[in-house]
Structure formats: C-alpha cells, structure tokens
Design goal:
The complex is a heterodimer of chains A (about 375) and B (about 375). With about 375 residues, chain A is of the alpha/beta class. Chain A has helices spanning about 25-40, 55, 85-95, 115-120, 135-150, 155-170, 180-185, 215-220, 250-260, 265-270, 285-290, 300-305, 330-345; strands spanning about 5-10, 45-50, 75-80, 100-110, 190, 195, 205-215, 225-235, 275, 355-365, 370-375. Classes of the chains: A alpha/beta (about 375), B alpha/beta (about 375). At the A-B interface, strand 3, helix 3, strand 8 and helix 9 of A face helix 3, strand 3, helix 5 and strand 8 of B.
Chain lengths: ~375, ~375
C-alpha cells in the first residue's frame, strides 16, 4: 500500500460554550488553520470528509451546514456520522483509493443540545429508552461490571481523573485543566453509581481538522509528516445485555488488526504514547486492557504504578484526554491530532520525549460498542 | 493507486408505504440476505459494512451500532455515512473506497429508511439554517416548485410535459416487482388531474414516502470475477455538494451540481456523448420536472430540449437511453436507500438480472443521487473492466 501521512492538524480551544461561533465558523477556523499548519492551500485539497451528527446539531443533513466552510463547494465530499477517528479512516481510504489528499473536519456543540436525550436516542426505542439509559447511566453499568469482575477500585479510577486533568494544565486547547487529588474526585457529587462528577467528561464545544496526503502532498507540505502505519475498526453486539461489558472484544479485534498492519508485535514496548477515548475515568484502564497494554483486570494496577503518567513508560493522554475536553465526534479526531503532535515533537509543554510510534483511539455507540484504532509513526 | 472495484450482488425489500411486520433492523436484514444470496456469499465473507439513512426520520442515533444484528456488523468494521437525499450514493461511493483503497476485499453497502415512522417534512425542514432559511424557504417541495416554475417560465415547458415524465416512471414501475407503485399504473389524465401540492407540482408529479432497504456487495478485482459471472465494474464516481444556503441556488440556470459532477465522471469514464454512450440511466428524479431539466444538465439534450426529448420517447424502454426502468424515485422513495437503489438498479442492468425491466445488452449504465441543498452525485458502471 502507498505510504500516506497526516500533514496538517488544527483544533479550536475546547470550551463549555462558544457563544460567538456557529458550527460554520468553527469549521472555517480549523480548516484554514490546518491548511496553514500544512503550508498548503485549498487548491492542494482534492476532497473533503466532514464529520457531524444530526442529533447534536439539531439539523437533519447536518453536513449541509459546513460544506462551504470546509472549502468543499466544488470538490468531492462525503460525511461520516460517528467519531472523528472513523471519519479520518474514510479520509485515509480515499487517499489510498486515488486522491492526493483529504481534509477531514469534525465539529460539535454540546452546549446547543441535551446530551441526555441525544444519547438516550442511541438505545432501543421500545425496551431501553423508557428506562432512561443514556451515555452516563450505561457507562455506570459498564463501570460496575468492570469493577466487580476484576476488583478495580473507585480510587484507581479517580487516579485517572487526577492524572488527566493534571496533564491538561499543559495543553492550551483543553477545557478542564485541574489540580486534583483522589480525595477531590471521590468527594465530587455522585452522578450514577459508581461514577462521580470528576469521573465524567465535560460537555464541550469545539472542532478539529486534519489533512491526509500521499507522498506527493507530503513533499509539497511544509510540516513534518506523520505516517499512517496501521488503522482498523470493529463493532460488537448492540444490546448491553448481549455484551460482556468488562471485556472490550471489538477493541481487541481492532487493535490486533491495526498492530498487524503496522508490524507491531508487542504494543506495550513499541508504542511510545497513547491518546485514548477516556469519556469516563474507568474507560482508560479498560481500553488499555483491550489494547493489549496489560492483562485483563490489570488496568487499575497499571494506572497506580505510574506507567501511564507523563514520565511513565507508556504515557496515556498527555493532552488531558477526553476527560479534559469532550466535544463529541471531535474528541477522537483530537486524539489523532494529539498523537500526531507527539510524533512531530511539537506537543509543546505536554511533549513526551522521543516519540516514534503513537496510538490514537476513538469509539462509537454506547459503552464503546465500536472502536477505531490508529498507529502513527515518524518513519 | 486505486484497485478496480465491481458490484457483484444486490438485494432490496419489496417496498411499501408501511412495513408494520418488521422493525428497521429486520427490514435491513431482508435486503442484506437478498444481496448475499444474489452473489452466493454468507455474512462471513463480508469484510466491512457501510450503512446510511437520515437520523431524524426514525429518530435513531448511531445507526451503525444500532443496526449490527440486522446489517451483519457484529464483530466487523461498520461505518455510517449520511448526506441527506444523496446518502445512498454516498454509501456506495464509501463502499467503493473501502475496496479501492486495498483495505477490504468484499464490502456491503446498505441504505434504508422507514418513512412510516417519520414526519418526513417535519424532519427535512431542519436541514436549513435555523435563523435564515428554515422559516422562509425549506422542505423538499417548495424549492422544487421554484425550480419547476423557473424552468416553465424560461422554456415554455408545461404541466403536461412534466406529466409525461411521471407517466414514464409509473409505467416502468409496472415491470418492477419491488417498486412501491408496482401494480398501481396511472394515465396521463390521472396525473394531470391529481391534487395540486405547490404550483406547479401535483401529487402525480412527486415521489412517495416508502419503507424499504437496499444492499449492494462491492468486491475487488481478482475477487469479483470469481464470484460473479458478469460483475458491474465501477468506472467513475463524482460528487458535488455545492451549497449550504437554499437562497444561493440560482434556479434560472441548469442544475450546477449535476453539470459539474457529471462532467468530472464522464471524463474519468471516457463518456463523450452521454445519450449515445449510456445504454441505461437510473436517475434520482424526485419529481417530474427534474426529468425534463436535469437530463439537460446531464447532457442528454441541449438546455430547453428536455420536453421534446421526452415526448420523442428517447427515455422510454427501448428508446435511445432508457431512463429508470425500475420506475425510479417517483415509484419508490425509501430516502436513505433511494440513491443506493439507483446504483443497485444500474448494476442489475449491467449484470443482466433485470428480468421484466431489463434493457437488452447493457454495456454502460449511469446512476445519480440528489439531495441536500441541490447536491448531485454521479456513479458510472460498465460491463468491461476499466482501463
């Protein structure tokens, strides 16, 4: 397969409410910023993938609001509804499939919707919606399943929150840079047992964009290329009751195929930094298990050991992660962007030394029903 | 370098106003099962899935993950692609790139809609900007009525010309057992006498709301030839989703998005004289006046030549370029599936599986999608492997 790379990235600052910007404005901001980061112009962009969700935008055909702002007026364009990592995967396939370059841009404004109603609409309308299931209550079920199975403690999960909000202090784009202790997390208001407020990601507004190019575009771009080494996605069963919520088997499958494509045999040793979708604190250790970074059930101890901290042997979410900014759909693309910045050595004060290989991860559906895993490299 | 890609199987439901006997996932499963049977594969053979519909019709968020037991996506890669009316062609094009990229060998494309569960216009009006367009100029019919009026004013086309298009679609649908309007023929007078919805569009001029699903199997070169005796090769595809604002569309000119998308696709597929080079076209014509005007954008005839071209019978079965042997969108409109049905029906024609609606000896077929803010997609299929 042809070598392709991420040659430009951009993010807005993530905020609770961007009163001064529409979706259109945010998309325009990151589109122009990504072009500028790559040192390219719109003429170098062959095609565009936008990422949006009709429920979050309160608009049917939500892509209609942003095509022009993404510079797609007279270009081939399509729209993925799902996490930005999935949109980026389609963008990559279009470069492998013949285009020189794809611009991928995602936006969402949590401030303009009601995420309880919107995430409730993911569930079966007859059997599950009336129960009040939403993103948070279903995550609470998963957290309980995970803790019960392996004896993971609330304190271990709280440590993830302390670590990631602390990392966010070094990321100028993050929404929630916080100095926390485990005690602060444990004493924060209970949202849905065992999840407390500081175990949960915030509601955010934001947008992000990347440019993926072939070798011709890489030569033309002024930025340092971040090569796409491996990517794969996979979904498991729909009904929560049909799933083993403590065993992320779709993630395991996606990770194995991404590793195979990238030639990675031992992910724990070969991956220098990981940006993963920690919408809730317990998700970070659970996804690390699914990614094969430790044995099933060992995610809590892994966090306690400090291995996932800024100075550990596997730094996870040095950007502050999704816990520190959660613009839905955008958040996975942000993981990809943060991994790219790490590989470029341009992550500023949250840069990890000597990153050659980075992992980025995004999810779709309730409790990570569907996962997308990316491996990026400097070579 | 892109791999060559072909369609090797298609499946669709028997489309109806109201499928009370199945839920959405079961309806999707019907189409998927038929598509797999058509190319003698099982779900195990499918490497990845692309699915699309319009969220607000059924009010189901995250249809990719919701659908998996119906679409076959359990422990498989599945992705949702949604672009409004063009969703079906967007799904087909996404499936094409899944294979062309080299990432997957056999990919299933699914489009579906259960319009009986929706307030269709209530959902569609929300596509427009909430401040400027939504309360003044939105929904499907008003902007189509504007286009039709402008076309009549410019070229002297009549309601009778449009009714002739509607007659063709409804007549062709009688050959297609899957069509929503199968078994319900209309005469020219009945179309002309049907109730006025928004001048000059009458009930007989417009598409229905349909419950239905479509599925199409795409395969890579080297795989496709082994699985299908006569695969339908993808020769080109092109997309122009030109506008964001309804007020920016100039209805006095040709359909710009279709002109641009078709010219790009024709160049890629080596089409020089579309009315001669295509043997059949499955066009996304949501209402009758599009059947006059948009064939001009496609270059079948010069601007203003649409009515004469239609009355001369060139687009009828057995004409120069048979248009919509399936009965088209005006005979079946399960919105997320509608444009994928155009691709599926074009593939059926190339594969020679059209039975009563088959056009003889199809070598090259055109499919289009339409939607959003006057957007167009073009998809070209052929019997011969592309160069």
């Amino acid at each position: 397969m042809e070598k392709i790379a991420i040659v430009g990235t951009a993010q807005t600052k993530y905020e609770r409410r961007k009163k001064d910007q529409t979706y259109y404005d945010m998309v325009y901001e990151v589109t122009t910023a990504a072009l500028s980061d790559a040192g390219l112009t719109l003429a170098d962009i062959d095609n565009v993938i936008t990422v949006s969700n009709d429920f979050f935008d309160g608009r049917t055909i939500s892509s209609m609001a942003v095509g022009e702002a993404a510079g797609a007026h007279d270009k081939n364009i399509s729209t993925v509804e799902g996490d930005g990592t999935f949109g980026a995967f389609y963008g990559a396939m279009r470069v492998w499939g013949g285009y020189r370059s794809t611009l991928v841009v995602a936006h969402s404004k949590g401030s303009e919707g009601n995420s309880k109603f919107i995430s409730n609409a993911m569930f079966d309308p007859i059997y599950h919606r009336p129960l009040g299931l939403d993103a948070i209550s279903s995550a609470a079920l998963q957290a309980n399943a995970y803790m019960t199975r392996y004896g993971i403690t609330e304190e271990q999960c709280a440590l993830v929150s302390v670590k990631n909000h602390g990392n966010a202090k070094k990321n100028p784009y993050a929404q929630l840079p916080l100095d926390l202790t485990v005690d602060d997390v444990m004493r924060s208001p209970k949202i849905a047992d065992p999840l407390k407020r500081l175990d949960c990601s915030p509601v955010s507004d934001g947008a992000a964009a990347i440019i993926i190019g072939n070798e011709e575009i890489v030569r033309k771009a002024k930025s340092k290329p971040v090569w796409i080494k491996g990517v794969a996605h996979c979904a498991e069963e729909y009904f929560l009751g049909d799933r083993d919520l403590a065993n992320p088997k779709a993630l395991r499958d996606a990770a194995q195929r991404a590793y195979l494509m990238a030639g990675i045999v031992n992910p724990r040793n070969e991956i220098d930094v990981a940006e993963i979708y920690d919408a809730f604190s317990y998700m970070e250790p659970l996804w690390l298990e699914g990614l094969g970074m430790c044995e099933p059930g060992a995610g809590g101890v892994l966090t306690e050991s400090g291995a996932t901290g800024m100075h550990g042997d596997l730094p996870v979410n040095p950007s502050g992660g999704v816990l520190s900014a959660h613009a839905v759909l955008v958040a996975g693309l942000a993981r990809l962007i943060e991994s790219s910045l790490q590989v470029r050595g341009e992550a500023g004060s949250h840069q990890i030394d000597g990153v050659k290989t980075a992992l980025a991860h995004g999810i779709n559906g309730a409790c990570g029903q569907s996962h997308c895993v990316w491996i990026l490299g400097a070579e | 370098m892109a791999r060559r890609v072909a369609i090797i199987g298609t499946g669709q439901t028997h489309h109806r106003s109201r499928r009370l006997d199945v839920n959405g996932r079961e309806m999707i499963h019907e189409a998927v099962t038929r598509a797999l049977a058509d190319c003698e594969l099982t779900m195990r053979d499918i490497d990845a899935i692309v699915i699309g519909n319009m969220d607000h019709f059924e009010a189901i968020n995250a249809v990719d993950t919701w659908s998996v037991e119906g679409s076959g996506g359990v422990m498989k890669p599945i992705m949702k692609v949604t672009t409004g009316g063009t969703t079906g062609t967007s799904v087909a094009i996404a499936a094409y790139y899944h294979v062309a990229s080299g990432m997957f060998d056999r990919v299933l494309a699914i489009g579906w809609e259960k319009n009986s569960e929706s307030d269709t216009t209530g959902a569609i009006v929300t596509c427009s900007d909430p401040i400027w367009d939504r309360y003044s100029y939105s929904g499907a019919i008003p902007s189509l009525a504007t286009e039709a009026s402008a076309y009549m004013e410019k070229f002297g086309a009549t309601q009778r010309d449009a009714a002739r298009v509607a007659l063709r679609e409804r007549t062709h649908a009688q050959n297609n057992p899957y069509a929503h309007m199968h078994g319900r023929p209309l005469t020219l007078d009945e179309i002309l006498d049907s109730p006025m919805l928004a001048y000059p569009i009458k009930l007989g001029d417009i598409c229905p709301r349909t419950d239905g699903a479509a599925a199409v199997v795409f395969a890579a070169e080297g795989v496709a030839e082994k699985l299908a005796p006569r695969p339908a090769w993808v020769k080109a595809n092109s997309v122009r989703h030109t506008n964001t604002w309804f007020g920016d569309v100039d209805q006095r000119t040709g359909l710009e998005s279709l002109e641009r998308a078709s010219r790009e696709a024709y160049a890629a597929a080596g089409i020089k004289n579309p009315a001669e080079d295509f043997d059949v076209a499955e066009l996304y014509l949501p209402y009758s006046y599009a059947g006059l005007k948009w064939i001009e954008a496609l270059g079948f005839c010069p601007p203003g030549g649409g009515p004469q071209f239609i009355w001369d019978g060139h687009t009828d079965m057995g004409g120069k370029i048979s248009v919509n042997p399936s009965g088209g969108v005006m005979s079946t409109n399960c919105i997320g599936a509608t444009a994928l049905l155009r691709v599926a029906e074009a593939a059926i024609q190339v594969m020679g599986k059209g039975e009563a609606r088959q056009v003889p000896d199809v070598k090259t077929a055109l499919a289009t999608g339409f939607g959003g803010c006057w957007w167009s997609d073009v998809f070209i299929l052929g019997k011969d492997k592309p160069a």
